[in-house]
């Protein structure tokens, strides 16, 4: 008696049965696995993260364009603007819920101060430099956060990286250099100046320091409330950001603000926020000073700050429900999509930035480096999981300031417990050829 096959059968054109093991069946099975009911929320979170990330980057550049003559005012606005938002949420959670644990309330405030200081410096260089750095180039320069964070982790955390990760980081840096070639060799462009490109790139250094400090300073708290953290970060970031005004006095060109002109510049920035153009004469693309473009500035900044909060919420959701691998893949996909949107005239209007040969080359090189780095990171994470006997815990401490630089997840390591004297003694016996039963190795210290 012939047993019936349990494999589903299909009928070919001649009526003969054939097993469902072709490429089409495998693709169908893959999609069936991906779109299982329990995976639908993950797909939605990931797509929303990508879309909100693209919109966030576009709105950030449009906001910079609206306040192109008032960068310091914009920096202060995007710092102080988050304090009432986070303050209201934290006040509600403190007085009406028990969501904020006691260990979070007792967390040393000086650590928030250090984090806020690093984020304040990052935000200053991003906003002031980003006003005169094109949107697509901003996205490419942002990818330098990976090699800079790796270097900072190597110095301060003694972190070690695989050759694949180092190779990927090197390729990313080479892509950044290629992306800067048009600014270095092309004619002067007031909207995309090589000096301000490097000024923007400097922001990566304090942001890399912030990434590393989050790994050092916040390891002691297992469950830090994100809203509480962001309130204190915004509070200290705003105060320290205000005291950065002396830097404005040494900036070149129309970005220079002498000490006695800081308050008038802030006043003009407030008028720009209300939609009033101040600088309208003796300005233009052929002159050093650009004309004001404050029309609907208040709408653009409100949209940006709103989508920035939403974007960071989706970062947390993707990390929590999908993991760091999916987050990294989504982050990689977001880069080319954002640069494509920057080149679409019907979306960007006068702020459109067409693709150039070198910008495309830089994008491709950086994407190759990102893929290499992500693969190396996944391999390293799997090895760490095997060594620790389980999945490595990943958490993200997002920044809601104007930086617009990608947040790097922190892979929390399981602390290595010291071996007991009994274990070390038995291990020595084993090396000497003296047999020791396995249960002796695992005996508790107090036995």
UniProtKB/TrEMBL annotation:
Organism superkingdom: Eukaryota
This protein's GO CC annotations: vacuolar membrane
Keywords associated with the record: Amino-acid transport, Membrane, Transmembrane, Transmembrane helix, Transport, Vacuole
Record-linked SUPFAM superfamilies: Multidrug resistance efflux transporter EmrE (SSF103481)
Main location: membrane
Coiled-coil region(s): none
Single GO biological process annotation from the record: amino acid transport
Sample GO molecular function, one term: xenobiotic transmembrane transporter activity
InterPro entries xref list: CRT-like, EmrE-like, Transprt_Chloroquine
Bilayer-spanning residue ranges: 40-60, 80-98, 110-128, 140-157, 164-182, 194-213, 234-251, 297-319, 331-352, 358-376
Keyword Secreted annotated: no
Subcellular location field: Vacuole membrane
Pfam families the UniProt entry points to: CRT-like
Membrane topology: Multi-pass membrane protein
Family recorded in the similarity comment: Belongs to the CRT-like transporter family.
The protein's name: Transmembrane protein
